[in-house]
Amino acid sequence: MKKLVVLSGAGISAESGIKTFRDADGLWEGHDVMEVATPEGFEKNPELVLDFYNQRRRQLKEVSPNHAHRMLADLEDSFNVVIITQNVDDLHERAGSTKVLHLHGELLKARSVIDRGYVKKWADDLNLGDVNFKGEQMRPHIVWFGEDVPMMMEAAPEVSSADIILVVGTSMQVYPAAGLVGLAPLDADIFYIDPNPKINYELSTSNNLTVIEESATKGIDIFIEKIA
Question: Which CATH superfamily does the domain covering 19-62+106-142 fall into?
Fold first, then answer.
C-alpha cells in the first residue's frame, strides 16, 4: 500500500466556516495576532487570550468537516494516509482520519504554563484559575509565534518516506512547516491544490509537481482521479 502524506492548512478548514487571521490585514477575528497568539500577549493579558480561544472553541463546535476532509479520510481504504496539518481544529479527525499530526497544537487541548508535557483534553471554556494538580495555570495547547514546533520531529520522517504528497489549504509560505515538502523523496509525486498557488522554493525544485488550481473541496476530486 502506497504512503500518502497530506500537508494541510487553513484553506481546507475555511471551507467549513473556520476563519484564519491571514484572510485580511493580519487580523484574526478582529484581533492583532501578536495580542492573542504569542507568549508575550498571554503574559500581558491572559484573560483576553483565554477568552479569544474560548470563542474559537465554541465556533469549532458549530462547524462540520467538509467534502475535502471526508474524501481524505476515505482514502485510508486505498493508501497509508498520514495527515500533517497546521490547523488546530479537529475536523480531520471528525471526518474519520486516523493518523493526524498537529504541527501547531490542538484547540481542544490545554497544557500547563510551566510543564509543557502536561496536556489534557479540553472541550469547554478555559479560564484563569483553571490549574493542574500542581496548581499551575492551564493555557491553550497552541504553538504561538516565537515558540518551538516540537511535532516537526515526528512529521519529518513521515514526509521523507512518502510515495505521494498532497499539499492542500496552505500557501506553503510559513516556515518551518513550509520546508517539510523539501524532505520528500526525489521520486515522490507531489500535488498542490490551491486556487491561487504560490510555488515556494521546495516545491519549485520538485521534478514531479502537479498543480491543481482549485479550492480544496473541488481540487480533491481531481487529485483522487489522478492517483486512482
Answer: SIR2/SIRT2 'Small Domain' (3.30.1600.10)
Q: What is the CATH number of domain 1-17+65-104+149-228?
A: 3.40.50.1220
Contacts for 193-199: CB closer than 8 Å, 24+ residues apart? 193/166, 193/167, 193/168, 193/169, 193/219, 193/220, 193/222, 193/223, 194/11, 194/167, 194/168, 194/169, 194/170, 194/219, 198/171, 198/172, 198/173
Domain positions in the chain are 1-17+65-104+149-228, 19-62+106-142
Q: How far apart are CA 44 and CA 10, in angstroms?
A: 27
Per-residue model confidence as pLDDT tens digits over 4-58: 999 999 999 999 998 765 555 555 667 788 899 999 999 999 999 999 999 999 9
Cell for 165?
504528497
Please pick, among 69, 102, 104, 141, the residue that the annotation labels catalytic: 104
Alpha-carbon distance 124 to 146, whole Å? Answer: 26
Alpha carbon distance 225, 228 (integer Å): 5
Q: Per-residue pLDDT tens for 53-71? A: 999 999 999 999 999 999 9
User: Cα separation of 139 and 112, whole Å?
Assistant: 6
Annotated active-site residue 31? The verdict is no
Is the Cβ–Cβ distance between 168 and 6 less than 8 Å? yes
Q: Using a cut of 0.85, tell me whether the model's pTM lies above it.
A: yes
Cβ pair 39, 146 in contact under 8 A? yes
Burial of residue 8 (CB within 10 Å: 0-12, 13-18, 19+) is buried
